[in-house]
Amino acid sequence: MAQSHGGHGHDRKHDHSHARAHDHGTHSHAHGHAHGHGHGPDGHVHGKADQKRVLIAALLTGGFMFAEAIGGWITGSLALVADAGHMLTDSIALWLAWYAFRLGGRPATQRMTYGFGRVKTLVAYTNGITIFAIALWIVYEAIVRFMDPPPVLGGPMLVVAIAGLLVNIAAFFVLHGGDRTSLNMRGAILHVLGDMLGSAAAIVAAIVIIATGWTPIDPILSVLVAVLILSTAWALMKEAAHVLLEGVPGKHDRDRIAHDLQNSVTGVREIHHMHVWSIDGTRTIATLHACLVEGTDPHGAVAAIKARLATEHAIEHATVEPEYGQCADRRSEHLH
């Protein structure tokens, strides 16, 4: 069979005038614009709701950040200053997350053929790095203050910390109802959760200072919060980096999927040169070569492979290259 266009079953004389609704030969795409990866109506509605949730959280966090910064400066509390600094970067990060949702909802273009969904993952990775840097700064400042504890006004500190906790709780519940599988949403929740922990630590520190006058509790609790933030930030960065590096999603086993296709789809002799990755941590994509038994209908085999991937492995977009005999890609033996 002719495989002159990258082995995808295209004939060079093929008329591309119907590219908007093409069959792609045996490639069998039923998408709109070339390789469109739409979310579907439900995903679009969910994305709009998440975008609104992030916007509300950004307004709440940014609005209170100034009050907490002033309160921390007046009272001399590192816990409040650290939390205000955290809320500043959180506010920026939430605005970036909101913009990422807006940008991610744009349709694919001729140059950005997969759309802008990965922007959300990039923002999530950036958020993780930002949180990591803030936590390290808190640890450094806490060490300095522990060695030379400054005076702290416990009463005003307690009032500001309680107000901050209430604002952060409100923002957390606004975000908590969103899509928890979205790395962008998880990054936003992580920021607000870190603020909640910071406010809680400031409340405890203020109570101890009021009751005992022992000011070193302020930097000590700041370090404990920083350690918690570091662990969660590292987990977020690691997962976002895996998506950006196009690693196989954790819920999938590429070799097991290949073996399943070989054993389940009639006419398939071998599956090789298979790649499985995710655009944004939620949508999974696969490309593969399917070596068919002579006489097998290529269109039927490709359709069966796509159906098996969708129903059994939750891979709804796949590019399948049917082959007979020797693989058309000379490099496939090195990539297999």
TrEMBL record:
GO molecular function, one term: zinc ion transmembrane transporter activity
Composition skew (Basic and acidic residues), residue ranges: 8-26
Topology versus the membrane: Multi-pass membrane protein
Superkingdom, natural source: Bacteria
Spans annotated as Disordered: 1-47
Annotated compartments: Membrane
Keyword terms of this UniProt record: Ion transport, Membrane, Transmembrane, Transmembrane helix, Transport, Zinc, Zinc transport
Coiled coil: none
Stretches that traverse the bilayer: 54-74, 80-101, 122-140, 152-175, 187-214, 220-237
Basic residues compositional bias, start-end: 27-38
Family: Belongs to the cation diffusion facilitator (CDF) transporter (TC 2.A.4) family. SLC30A subfamily.
Protein's name according to its UniProt entry: Cation transporter
Species of origin: Pseudaminobacter soli (ex Zhang et al. 2022)
